[in-house]
Design goal:
Helix content: 40-55%
Strand content: 5-15%
Order of helices and strands: HEHEEHEEHEHHEHEHHHH
Low-confidence stretches: 1-7, 9-17, 318-345
Oligomer: single chain
Length: about 350
């Protein structure tokens, strides 16, 4: 603990041996948590501050640090809070910044984005880590998250990635969950998960280096030595990394309204093309069923075809994973949808 305390103290006064200009208001290191709606950003922020994972947000405005079970976004503004790491008052204070989750309609969220930029640029001013939170079960990027990362890169510039870390929320270390991950093909390990997401970031955003990954489960079982040890391990990894990097200066970030509109148009195009491909699959399914009915009428088979629901195209691609909206967003809307669906229909 003494070694960790000394490491924390050496880092919190800012890299380069100097205090940051507003450390009295926002103690260093400063950690921003970003991610899509419902991934558990506020729960993570609360736990790192030593609060309950289901903290009700008392004393904060616009739902900041408030946790609810629904997927609707609770946090509406970007809010900073200071406290002790995991509630340990023997350590210096640090700053955590809770942010809203973005959905698919970025145009409606311009005010939210403006608040985020203004808070980071004019108040916090320096950020040591941007923690990009994903649900462990989400092995693909969503429209919303991809757009949000694109927006951050547009606003902050490519230097943003030098201060970014991946976080897998809900990565439970209980025996059953570990067996499920180990039984997957290939097995879903921490290294595999980190490699998958880093590969997507390199391919989609041309991120040159692999981002560090942590697996902090805010719902871990406190009575389990294994789960507690893993929680403490990755929590310490996170704070040590925050203390080891040069702070990112937010003075040059912009709201980038033009890019917001461009990305919204891109999202709309992807959704339209996804719907068109779903309709093509639906028509193919109906044609297949009609052929089966014709075969039955000619007495070639004895079992009549089963009636297919009108949303068969959606169900088919959901069950057979011939495409997802995210695959179009990540890999392009060209041949991946057509080729994979031809293979399966």
């Amino acid at each position: 603990m003494l070694t960790f305390f000394l490491f924390f103290v050496s880092g919190f006064i800012g890299t380069g041996g100097r205090r940051l200009e507003n450390d009295d208001r926002f103690p260093s290191p400063r950690i921003v948590i970003i991610g899509a709606t419902g991934v558990g950003k506020s729960s993570l922020a609360n736990v790192l501050l030593g609060r309950d994972k289901s903290y009700d947000g008392s004393g904060f405005r616009d739902g900041c640090f408030k946790v609810q079970s629904k997927l609707d976004p609770m946090t509406k503004s970007t809010c900073a809070d200071r406290g002790y790491w995991l509630g340990n008052t023997s350590l210096p204070e640090f700053t955590i910044i809770d942010t809203p989750g973005f959905g698919d309609d970025l145009l409606k969220e311009e005010k939210t984005i403006e608040n985020l930029v203004n808070t980071l640029k004019n108040e916090v001013k320096y950020v040591h880590l941007f923690v990009i939170a994903f649900r462990q079960q989400d092995n693909r990027m969503t429209y919303a998250l991809r757009s949000m990362l694109s927006l951050f890169e547009k606003m902050f510039g490519r230097a943003f990635w030098d201060n970014a870390v991946l976080e897998a929320t809900h990565w439970n270390y209980g025996d059953q969950n570990q067996r499920i991950r180990a039984g997957s093909s290939p097995p879903i390990t921490e290294d595999f998960w980190a490699h998958q997401f880093n590969s997507k970031l390199k391919r989609e955003f041309q991120v040159e280096k692999s981002l560090p990954a942590v697996f902090i489960d805010t719902f871990y079982d406190h009575s389990s030595p294994m789960e507690t040890a893993q929680f403490n391990k990755y929590a310490q990894n996170l704070i040590e990394h925050a203390n080891s990097v040069h702070p990112f200066e937010c003075k040059d970030i912009e709201i980038a309204l033009h890019e917001i509109r461009d990305m919204q148009n891109h999202i709309d195009r992807l959704k339209k093309e996804t719907d068109e491909r779903t309709n093509i699959i639906q028509n193919l399914i109906e044609e297949r069923e009609e052929l089966k009915r014709q075969i039955v009428l000619h007495g070639v088979v004895t079992e009549p075809p089963q009636k297919q629901p009108r949303n068969g195209g959606n169900l088919f691609c959901l069950n057979n994973r011939c495409y997802t909206p995210t695959e179009f967003a990540l890999f392009g809307v060209g041949e991946i949808g057509r080729a994979s669906c031809r293979e399966r229909v």
